[in-house]
Amino acid sequence: MLLLAIKILIGDKAKFIVIVLGLSFSSLIIVQQSSIFAGLMVRTFGFITDTSQADIWVMDKQVRFIDDVKPLRDTQLYLVRGIEGVKWAVPFYKGLLKARLRGGNFQMCNVIGIDDSTLIGGPPRMREGKISDLRLVDAIIVNKVGADEMLAENGIYNPEKKPVIPLRVGEVLEINDRRAQVVGICDSSRTFQSQPVIYTTYNRALNYAPPERKQLSYILVKAQDGVSPKELCRMINARSDLAAYTNGEFKKLTFDYYMENTGIPLNFGIAVLLGVIIGMAISGQTFYNFILDNLRFLATFKAMGANNRLLTKMVLLQAVWVGFIGWGLGVGAAAVFGWFSRNSDLSFLLMWQLYVISGIVMFLITGLSAWIGLNRVYRLDPAIVFKS
Amino acid sequence: MKDEVAVKCSQIRKSFGVGDLRFEVLHGIDLEVKSGELLMLVGPSGSGKTTLISIIAGILSHDNGHCQLFGNDIDTFSDSEKTKFRGENLGFVFQSFNLIPMLSNSENVAIPLLLNHMDRHEAIKLAEERLDQFGLGDKVGNFPAQLSGGQQQRVAIARAVIHNPKLIVCDEPTSALDHENGALVLNHLREIVDKENRALIVVTHDSRIFDYADRIVHLEDGNIASEKMNHG
């Protein structure tokens, strides 16, 4: 009988297609929008992910997220180095500086200054050149996306549609009127603001940056073997007026800031809600109508000896079946969308949790419709089969 | 067993509505149907024919009286027991066929067997054999919409008898059919009664088929107005 329930469902082709398409579209919107949201949120802490050599980030207590730099005094670096349990502590500069390009254009760049001696905090992967090349005069390393797009010749403001010529190793830029020579191209996580990322040494970065009394953005810390980063954070917090976070905590701090202080979650939340409403309005309603349209047949089954338990199983199986197909097509389409957009500027992170969440939503939509429909089935008088 | 009492109803009363709107449809009906008997319930619209067969089939409860099917007092059955009893012992033929349009003819016929937990392949095989007996062997994989009205009703009859029910209840089985197809359907039903010793109750307005009945019970305003034996 359960197989017949599926045949009855598929046999009503028009309704079946509407239900499946509605659920697919709903599932696609939920997964696609959530994936873009997730990708965007991951970008907010991309720098922290890239700077994985350190266990701990130390900063001013007022810092709310990675780009909310509140410079520290250089002496605070020595204070941290003196705390028990610290294996090493290095300075880290992060600032937005203007670079002058070959064609005369200007581009704001994320300039990262890493420890001159150890080069800790450098790019995660090199495409051309070596990190140690940063020790050369005026050396900078540029991220691939920046070199190919915004720092490329004709990469920005190109009304005549001239060919875009990527920035190459050996070429020279000006950062704040100072010479900067490209010695390497690296990969780095895309940033939330999508600006090019330029790595250089800490002291050179301070030369590029406009003079300020305090210029140290962060202190990167490694815990000694046997000392847990969390425990070390507690000690740094206790012995200084600074805030210390593990990588995970700093990511969460940044993530929470964007969640609480920007309209991004609300905007994406509305889009996802729209997906759910579309699913409810189109598929939920159509599935409910499908049950109502089949009441006469269900009554016939009832008259012929089907009990409510069997009818419930049949309707629920139909709900699960249609929910599964709609969900599968939707997440499949979202995955294809993600695959095609993998090399674009679009942030897209399809997490397994989204498969689960969208699946639950699909089954809730069809389950709710089935439940409402089943109430009619339970109250169904099989005597209606004798009415023409 | 020939002449076994299939249905025994005594003093069946049934009302619908409440308060001032309450009206009694059946006023104490006594009725007995035997195995191997084809009984026709006739009478004008509103006389209570459909209500009576709904009560006999155990899908409608009555207010007073007793109704026994093959010695079982179905009044004492719970809803689920009634449902199970119907599935095993009753077959139905409906005025508008009530075939499931999304299922093939053989699947439609196999439904009672599947409801009685028979293996699907076996059920379909038996259904195909039944359809073949009814002259529809070449239509087993077709859908009801691909059949004429007469053919659809024959599929419905095949479905009603596939699980060898002791009692078959037919509601206006020929009302949607022309004379020729109506006669064909009644021939099938008559054959089932005679050869397979089933009890058959047919509710009908169609005087063209009265000759097929063993007995005709005329209902009027919820009472049995007359009874007429047709054969012997």
How would you describe this structure to a colleague?
- The complex is a heterodimer of chains A (388) and B (232).
- Chain A has helices spanning 2-11, 13-44, 46-50, 75-81, 144-148, 202-208, 229-239, 247-261, 264-293, 295-303, 308-340, 352-378, and strands at 56-60, 86-100, 106-114, 125-128, 139-143, 172-175, 178-187, 197-201, 218-223, 242-246.
- Chain A folds into 2 domains: 2-43 and 263-386, no CATH class; 62-240, no CATH class.
- Chain A is an alpha+beta fold and 388 residues long.
- Helices cover 49% and strands 18% of the residues of chain A.
- In chain A, helix 11 packs antiparallel against helix 12 (352-378).
- Chain B has a single domain (5-229), classed as P-loop containing nucleotide triphosphate hydrolases (Rossmann fold), CATH 3.40.50.300.
- Helices cover 32% and strands 28% of the residues of chain B.
- Chain B has helices at residues 49-56, 79-89, 105-115, 120-133, 149-161, 179-196, and strands at residues 5-16, 23-34, 38-42, 64-69, 72-73, 90-93, 167-171, 199-203, 215-220, 223-229.
- In chain B, helix 3 crosses helix 4, helix 3 packs parallel to helix 5 (149-161) and helix 5 (149-161) packs parallel to helix 6.
- Chain B starts with a strand and ends with a strand.
- Classes of the chains: A alpha+beta (388), B alpha/beta (232).
- Chain A binds chain B through residues 1, 3-4, 7-12, 296-297, 300-307, 310, 381-383, 385-388, and chain B through 50, 53-54, 57, 59-60, 80, 83-84, 86-88, 90, 92, 94-96, 98, 100-103, 107, 111-112, 114-116, 120, 171-172, 175.
